[in-house]
Amino acid sequence: MIELIYLVLFILPAYIANSSPVILGGGTPIDLGKSIDGKRILGDGKTIRGFIGGVFVGTLFGFVLSRLYLLPEFTADQMVFVAFLLSLGTMVGDSLGSFIKRRLNIDSGKPFVLDTFFFLVIALAFAYSSSPKIYYQPDGIVLILAITLILHPLTNFIANRIGVKKVPW
Ligand code: CTP
Ligand code: MG
To answer: What's this model's pTM, rounded to 2 decimal places?
Structure first.
């Protein structure tokens, strides 16, 4: 397995993209308030500004990371592109998660198991074909998903305590 520190740096743009909408988001919802069968398509928690902000900040972070030349097997340009794919995949996965929650009658802001790791699965899928294969060994992916499962509730709890997130999940 590739060293854990490299795996963590690799997926950091996805974490950044996932957490930044709490601060950057708000305003017009992506679904423009529309419903299907009486249920919101995505809900008020998924906004256009949050989606674009997440993709932008995650990619920007990847740009900074790329200038440090820290990640083995990556060229700087490839790193920026992969950070963009990870960030875009994160925001698509986040929205897809909300779409599923609404279909299951789970209200916006209520916790659901998919909230914790689904964004990362989609992000990793988006970046797969553009990334060096050493970042996609099964043992590494399982470890990174397990870490995310633990880290996600912890960071949400902290974000709530310091006042940037409304709910502690
Ligand atoms: N957010 C946003 N735009 C996005 C994603 C998130 O503005 N595309 C902001 C919203 O203010 C949202 C907060 O970040 O309330 C927390 O995000 P998240 O937990 O993903 O959304 P929830 O409000 O829990 O909604 P859902 O149940 O649909 O996940
Ligand atoms: Mg939530």
So the answer is: 0.97
